[in-house]
Structures are given as C-alpha cells and as structure tokens.
C-alpha cells in the first residue's frame, strides 16, 4: 500500500482529492493523525 508520507504522493493525493469529495474525507481523516 502507498503511504502518504511521500511528498509526491501528497501532491498527487491533493490534486485527486479536489476532484472527488469522498477521497477528500478519507484524506482529511488520514491527515488528522
């Protein structure tokens, strides 16, 4: 599984997130650690 610790992954995630509200929720939940 890909971790979100990699800056490149974070950038890709944030761009992905802006398109899909469901992913936004997941990303925010992961970020809240």
Describe this structure as you would to a colleague.
- The chain has one domain.
- Helices cover 67% and strands 0% of the residues.
- The protein has helices at 7-17, 21-31.
- Helix 1 (7-17) packs antiparallel against helix 2.
Which structural class do the helices and strands define?
Answer: mainly alpha
Categorize the overall geometry: flat
Encode the helix/strand succession as letters: HH
Low-confidence stretches: none
The number of distinct structural domains comes to 1
Radius of gyration (CA) equals 9 Å
What is the average of the pLDDT values? 67
Please work out how many helical segments DSSP would assign.
2
Please indicate the percent range of residues in DSSP E strands (runs of 2 or more). under 5%
